[in-house]
């Protein structure tokens, strides 16, 4: 591979801000689905979420991904009003207290629009803007967009995932969604792509995509990789404990960084930041020397 092809795109931009991706950015996951153990109400939940977000920023996150609807298989769908009631106060409060790049994890055009008006910079859509009106809504916001591949829908996607060739199929899907965005007037500097690990994929599909990550990172758009704590590690290790899942996630994050990923989505920001620090130190010993650690 040529040096040029090995150099992934250097940034992603919203109308408000530009995020430098010459070093991979850590995206911290912020779930704001109601906590059944909390009786403090929405205000308390908002404060707790913002505190967690600011902790993740202090630990190295450069993007916070705010999600108000679980995409786990079997999760209960929520309507747009409820989703907005969960995420908007968090986005507003976080934007008031931090300059961090804020991502909104949603598939609903109405939520995209309101979240971006409240200060979100990136629309992270596991449906890749396939909901009616989503491409147009995203184009209007001026926000960046992450287009993720998913086969099927969350409720049933793990029942019998099947591909002719998983790498070619996922690549073709993402190319088509990128084309739809370009046609709606979204410039490339606002786009990134994601093979969607675990979304309608067997363990073998996930491993095949990870092995072939260069197919995605050698293109013109930044690549987001999300493997944090996913059940692929439970299966691979035949172990059902959280430390095993985190170990797998961190090792996969290292692989992803070595293969040109621009954004790593994770629950474990401090640990993932350390992994990226190691990847950086191995890639360029000048970084260590100039940081005074050499
Ligand atoms: C991903 C994601 C989830 C991912 C992107 C989980 C919202 C499931 N996974 N978004 N969302 N990529 N872009 O286990 O892999 O975190 S939710």
What does this structure look like?
With 294 residues, this protein is α/β, with parallel strands linked by helices. It has twelve helices and ten strands. The longest helix is centred in the N-terminal third of the chain and has 18 residues. The N terminus is likely disordered. The site of ligand 8Y7 has 15 residues, from strand 7 and strand 9.
Task: Give me the secondary-structure topology.
Elements: H1 3-6, E1 11-13, E2 18-20, E3 25-31, H2 41-58, E4 61-67, H3 80-97, E5 101-105, H4 109-117, E6 122-125, H5 134-141, E7 144-148, H6 166-183, E8 191-194, H7 203-211, H8 213-217, E9 224-226, H9 231-237, H10 242-258, E10 263-266, H11 269-283, H12 285-290
Parallel strand pairs: 3-4, 3-10, 4-5, 5-6, 6-7, 7-8, 9-10
Antiparallel strand pairs: 1-2
The structure holds ligand 8Y7.
Which keywords apply here?
294 residues, alpha/beta, TIM Barrel, 8-stranded parallel β-sheet, two-stranded antiparallel ribbon, 46% helix, globular, disordered N terminus, binds ligand 8Y7
Mean pLDDT, rounded to whole units?
93
**Low-pLDDT sequence parts:** 1-5
Q: Identify the CATH architecture.
A: Alpha-Beta Barrel
Number of strands: 10
What share of the residues lie within helices? 40-55%
Largest sheet data: 8 strands, parallel
Distance between the termini: 31 Å
**Given this structure, which CATH class is correct?**
Alpha Beta
Bound molecules: ligand 8Y7
User: Could you say which overall geometry the principal axes of the C-alpha atoms support?
Assistant: globular
- What is the CATH topology classification name? TIM Barrel
Count of DSSP H/I helices: 12
Spatial ordering of strands, largest sheet: 8-7-6-5-4-3-10-9
Q: Find the CATH superfamily.
A: Dihydropteroate synthase-like
Report strand %: 15-25%
Domain module tally? 1
Rg over alpha carbons: 18 Å
């Amino acid at each position: 591979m040529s040096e040029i092809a090995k150099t992934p795109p250097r940034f992603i931009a919203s109308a408000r801000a530009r995020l430098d991706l010459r070093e991979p950015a850590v995206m911290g996951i912020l779930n704001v689905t109601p906590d059944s153990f909390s009786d403090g109400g929405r205000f308390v939940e908002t404060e707790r979420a913002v505190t967690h977000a600011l902790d993740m920023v202090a630990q190295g996150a450069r993007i916070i991904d705010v999600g108000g609807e679980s995409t786990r298989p079997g999760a209960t769908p929520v309507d747009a009003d409820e989703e907005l009631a969960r995420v908007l106060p968090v986005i507003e409060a976080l934007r008031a207290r931090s300059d961090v790049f804020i991502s909104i994890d949603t598939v609903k055009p109405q939520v995209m629009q309101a979240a971006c008006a409240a200060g979100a910079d990136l629309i992270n859509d596991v449906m890749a803007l396939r909901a009616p009106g989503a491409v147009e809504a995203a184009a209007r916001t001026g926000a960046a967009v992450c287009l993720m591949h998913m086969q099927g829908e969350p409720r049933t996607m793990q029942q019998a995932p099947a591909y002719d060739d998983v790498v070619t199929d996922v690549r073709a899907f993402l190319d088509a969604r990128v084309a739809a965005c370009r046609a709606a007037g979204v410039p490339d500097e606002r786009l990134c792509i994601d093979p969607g690990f675990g979304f309608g994929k067997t363990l073998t599909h996930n491993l095949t995509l990870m092995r072939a990550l260069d197919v995605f990172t050698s293109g013109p758009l930044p690549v987001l990789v999300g493997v944090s704590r996913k059940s692929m590690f439970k299966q691979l290790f035949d172990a059902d404990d959280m430390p095993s899942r985190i170990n797998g996630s961190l090792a996969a994050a290292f692989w992803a960084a070595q293969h040109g990923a621009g954004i790593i989505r994770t629950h474990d920001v401090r640990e993932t930041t350390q992994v990226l620090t190691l990847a950086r130190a191995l890639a360029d010993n000048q970084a260590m020397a100039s940081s005074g650690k050499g």
